[in-house]
């Protein structure tokens, strides 16, 4: 299942009529891929498109994912960071605002931050070596049964490999350098709920293993196939189940097939003037079913809520049958909410096929903003106060100094002397006149949404609070760039990998009073672990407070380091490479084995500081080892007994969570 | 959680934290810091530009700012509100009380006072001591540590000079001056108390277990300084000056306070720095001996201090200060501490530490003391004292020289840190020791004799007292060897007490002795078997014993060593026997501590007068208290807290039984460890 990795993608303007424009930009990559006519029309009739494997792909993600998306990295094939002939950094493609722009200071930042040199490059192999791919074992009887259902399927090596992984560092590393030990034997593309029912029935009949696959953006090793799985593994790709079945304007709900990816959902709803407002960072690629399966969180949850607040009704196909509620109501008191067995079940119980989700009219007005604080402590105090007064805008985030500097490095070449003069003036005002230390200050980015008048009022309230904590308004542009930053960062890892810089991100949630200690300690732990592992150049170790709640916050960490700058380069380089590959194979072999040591150390640190195992990425196989500690023996037993009842033969055998 | 019951002989979680390096390790070189003082102006030194190395995360603040931060802290405010509610008082009144406590407690560190001390102490130290030697590498390690994380300095405590010297040292090396936990009794001294306060001392009451407000204010005061990295925090694990020069068993209160910010992750890490300060001649040596014999310690007073100035004309030899490797608390705690309890309660609420945490704190305390012991410098005189005490009343000088050299070898084999320059011959070393300690022993007609002047005339009582005084003073120096020797020696003793050579029986006896002496010497808790193995290993290393699969027996040439080692600890065995005898027969079943000490002292005194025993050391109140504490731990005596202190109830039968085991009349009955 797709994990909703992080928060929303950004881009878009701050002008009154910007809602549409923003959506256009978010979905800008659709240019040149016109939608199939008729797909926009809403139809409650199920499974209209049953037509076997040749049915035209209607959503953004084709069956052949690799035709659109990188097979060994993040995002679209045409979008990536490169160093051009002049040695300047540049972002290619036209999908994003940053596309085609030169980033003059970025190279220097990389060299300074990682001690990396552009002369030392390592490149991934150009394409997958099909000969290395484990063969597909599929029982002939099952295949006959499957063909009889007319559901599209494939045993092609590439199709199978590209559904054997998510986007953890070690998974990408394996794609670039090695091969997974176990991958799905067959990929199936159901186009509707009934197709899924048939597939699950067949899997039960033949005792096969199903691993549901949505957007493939998991960062918890949730999609890796358990190596010891001897049965045929079916990758159930939901990407072709992507229709909005109906929209109910009276109750403001929409019933949607679970395979739809975020951008298509928003785009299609927008045609009727609605949105869900659920915007995880991965929304271009992650799917509705994946959000449900991982308990996803969206950037604008302050207005729209997280996935558990948005969902009204879920239909899930399990080996026991179909689970759903009998009505579509805002709340009911009928024992523990069965939705909560489904949300966060990470593909271990069944396949989510249809979801009724809350919708809202597209907001009239959007405005970005930013505030500079003299230091991180003041910034956190301000966010806490905003949360206390319950006046958080759609999104409010606080990035630490390192991330602020990183954002600065991604500033495109300025168009005119006048802008550059203005920038200089702003900088002078903040650092010289106000006395902020550029190596300590930090920035909060804001996104307001709603009626124009209310937004302006709201904006004033938030800025007033910020002033009390020493904050200075720093403009819309900085805010907007901040949101863009979180979103291109995923593309950056691929660039880093080419220059021996490896990076990873992780998140947690933590009570307010521990936010500062947790941030400091986790960052320090990363620095220290790197030092102990012989990494010569101090790593980039940075965090941002990315969501606020009444009782705490969600914190997002990034770390990255240059694994070349090590005392004994050749030896250690080999060592780390081996180490990463070993690790990858270990994770694949026994799912409970340790993933990357560093991330593990960081997670240990988080837990010791009173943070949670995960705020929204989920557990997968990567964080299973801490589940017992997280929810107690009895809690784990409760979940196990649900699994045992729903799926006694472990048909949904991806081994996540439990 | 399963019930991992803390059974006797506590089964500990995880790998034992303490394991001693048995191969003689390389230690740092020493530098004399007084040398430069003798060459250049003290005034200029006192007025030098002092820009100390400080903690990287420090935001500078004044002592008063700390006090108000403490007062306003959630922790203290919570307790104030609780107490107000319980006692029906207004919070303001309790707040007022807290302010008073803080004013009494708080330091007021001032550079002026520091400079005053820098000047006067230079003068005094030069007068008193020949050399003050410091391992400079240790100072460099400390310098790094101070910048990185909050630092806790844990020096050994033998003299009031300890903390003065340590601050003086940090000033000399341009390091942040520590704040020092001092006993409240110093405040009784006019001017001096205030001076100390300005030099960074803060004052704690001797006992405040029941006073929740005091505890909250004190703990928060210490933690606030630690968290902010305001200054290194210095205190004495031993709690008080050891009157016997033996390391005292650790106190846990302050240690658990300084560890808490790490447990709660308010700091990333905390460094604990063991510091060993050893004196060739202890300033308070005769005071201590009087005190041990029951002549009360003079109250700290300024006039007393002035009277004591005559000692300025005396020579107290060399001081060695060994600053140990800073120990990362994070490293110690890794894998040992369950984080749950701290995550489920708001961090400002007072929380009784869990059993796990208490056990961990105790382990750390013992580990730190053992590290202090490991790096404690031993002077040649210490060897002389040990030999002399086994050869009373006099010892032939030549024999003494020969034996001293032999003992030097043995001590080094056991890992003792003897400072004996390569080119120094035994004669010179012993003679210089005798000169320095002429009040204890003298060379008369080719014999070294104990200096118990006035023995010939006077009543027997007085003779016994004088004698005891001399012996206790001498013992103070021998005692410095004991913690280095205790493991092999207890094996040697066990060998002599056990009728057979069977390993299990020797081990049971060893283990029994280790339990009995657990307050007398420093043993890391719960590793009896490891200690036994270490003792056997060291004895094998010096060819004193041989071991087979089942048996341990002394070698022919090893008998000298074995009997020397057991004789070294004989005074303790005999002393404990006397004290146990007193408890099993001579006393009422219930008594207070105040009754116990004089009672047992009289008992021993009479036996000495009659000449029934020669064990003068049994007069030491330190030994008497330790013996009683051992019985409490063994369950033969019940200790009860009453309004006016502790009351003890003796199970006389149980005591006689222990006594019988001690006298080796009945075999030690202890469950034998599964595998040897």
TrEMBL record, chain A:
The record marks 397 as: Important for enzyme activity. Its cofactor is FAD. GO terms for biological process: ether lipid biosynthetic process. One of its GO terms (cellular component) is peroxisome. Pathway: Lipid metabolism; Glycerolipid metabolism; ether lipid biosynthesis. It is found in: Peroxisome. Keywords: FAD, Flavoprotein, Lipid biosynthesis, Lipid metabolism, Peroxisome, Transferase. GO terms for molecular function: alkylglycerone-phosphate synthase activity; FAD binding. It catalyses: a long chain fatty alcohol + a 1-acylglycerone 3-phosphate = a 1-O-alkylglycerone 3-phosphate + a long-chain fatty acid + H(+). Residues 49-60 have a biased composition (Low complexity). Residues 180-362 form the FAD-binding PCMH-type domain. Coiled coil: none annotated. The active site is at residue 556. Gene3D superfamilies: 3.30.160.650, 3.30.300.330, 3.30.465.10, 3.30.70.3450, Uridine Diphospho-n-acetylenolpyruvylglucosamine Reductase, domain 2, Vanillyl-alcohol Oxidase, Chain A, domain 4. Residues 1-62 are annotated as: Disordered. Substrate binds at residue 493. PANTHER family: ALKYLDIHYDROXYACETONEPHOSPHATE SYNTHASE, PEROXISOMAL (PTHR46568). Belongs to the FAD-binding oxidoreductase/transferase type 4 family. Homodimer. This is Alkylglycerone-phosphate synthase. It comes from Lepidothrix coronata. The lineage of its organism: Eukaryota, Metazoa, Chordata, Craniata, Vertebrata. The gene is AGPS.
UniProtKB/TrEMBL annotation, chain B:
It comes from the Eukaryota. The keyword Phosphoprotein applies. Belongs to the GPAT/DAPAT family. It catalyses: dihydroxyacetone phosphate + an acyl-CoA = a 1-acylglycerone 3-phosphate + CoA; dihydroxyacetone phosphate + hexadecanoyl-CoA = 1-hexadecanoylglycerone 3-phosphate + CoA. Keywords: Acetylation, Acyltransferase, Membrane, Peroxisome, Phosphoprotein, Transferase. It is found in: Peroxisome membrane. Pathway: Membrane lipid metabolism; glycerophospholipid metabolism; Lipid metabolism; Phospholipid metabolism. Dihydroxyacetonephosphate acyltransferase catalyzing the first step in the biosynthesis of plasmalogens, a subset of phospholipids that differ from other glycerolipids by having an alkyl chain attached through a vinyl ether linkage at the sn-1 position of the glycerol backbone, and which unique physical properties have an impact on various aspects of cell signaling and membrane biology. InterPro entries: DHAPAT (IPR028353), GPAT/DHAPAT (IPR022284), GPAT/DHAPAT_C (IPR045520), GPAT/DHAPAT_LPLAT (IPR041728), Plipid/glycerol_acylTrfase (IPR002123). Part of a heterotrimeric complex composed of GNPAT, AGPS and a modified form of GNPAT. Signal peptide: none annotated. Residues 1-20 are annotated as: Disordered. This is Dihydroxyacetone phosphate acyltransferase. GO terms for cellular component: mitochondrial membrane; peroxisomal membrane. PANTHER family: DIHYDROXYACETONE PHOSPHATE ACYLTRANSFERASE, GLYCEROL-3-PHOSPHATE ACYLTRANSFERASE. The gene is GNPAT. SUPFAM superfamilies: Glycerol-3-phosphate (1)-acyltransferase (SSF69593). GO terms for molecular function: glycerol-3-phosphate O-acyltransferase activity; glycerone-phosphate O-acyltransferase activity. Residues 151-280 form the Phospholipid/glycerol acyltransferase domain. CDD domains: LPLAT_DHAPAT-like. One of its GO terms (biological process) is ether lipid biosynthetic process. Pfam families: Acyltransferase, GPAT_C. It comes from Lepidothrix coronata. The keyword Metal-binding does not apply. It is a peripheral membrane protein. Its EC number is 2.3.1.42.
